[in-house]
Structure formats: C-alpha cells, structure tokens
Amino acid sequence: MTLLMFTCKAGAAGVGDGAAASKVARHLIDLGASLKIRCRWTNMAPLHYAAYFDVGPVLNDLLMASKVSVIQNLIRLKLVTVLFGLFLGSGRGYRLLRV
Questions:
Q1: pLDDT score, position 82
Q2: Tally of structural domains, the chain
Q3: Residue closest to 51 by CA, chosen among 60, 42, 43
C-alpha cells in the first residue's frame, strides 16, 4: 500500500479530513506518485480507494491527474463510446461528472 492510498483512506468521513487529504494527494501527485500501482492485498489503485471510502475531493484530484488514461480505459473497455470519450476529454463533459 502506498502513501497515496493511505491518503485516500485518511480523507474518509469519521476518519479524517477530505480537504486535508486532497491537499496531500495533490502534493504526492506533483512529486510523481503513481496512480496505476495497485495494493497487493486488495488489488485496488488509489482511485479505487478514494471511490470506496467516498472521498470526493481526493477522487476529483485523482481524476484530474489521470483523466486522459481513465477516458482511454473506459473506451477500451467499451463502457463509453469514442464520441462520448471525446466529450469527456473536452473538459465540458468532465464538469458534469465532478463529485
């Protein structure tokens, strides 16, 4: 488990502060923390942890940092069409998805 994953968990309601976790997550991302590494125990990436623990501010930061790869993965998995993926990538569609 990486420090970024612990940060995602630390922002959970009743555990810590989402805004503080968001600030730390942005700093770790700026320092080069990987968004793709998965935990050996749970097989979850930081994005999964942020979603699982419902930490909206951190989830938003992770999506902003990886938005191109997330959209490409959704298209690859055929969860969205290429046209909708382009709409999401334009920034206008992303605002509709913000947490």
A1: 53
A2: 1
A3: 60
Q: What does 10-70 look like in DSSP terms, one character per residue?
A: HTSTTTS-HHHHHHHHHHHHHTT--SS---TTT---HHHHHHHTT-HHHHHHHHHHHHHHH
Closest CA to 7 of 81, 56, 18, 31: 18
Q: How many CB atoms lie within 10 A of CB 21?
A: 24
Averages of pLDDT over runs of 10 residues in the chain (99 residues) are: 92 91 94 91 90 88 74 59 55 45
Residue 85 belongs to what domain range?
Answer: 3-97
| Dihedral Cα 9, 23, 66, 37, nearest 10 deg | -40
In order of 33, 55, 59, 76, 88, the CA distances from 12 in angstroms are: 20, 6, 11, 30, 27
User: Has this prediction a pTM greater than 0.85?
Assistant: no
Residue that has been written with the tokens 């605002």 in this structure: 95
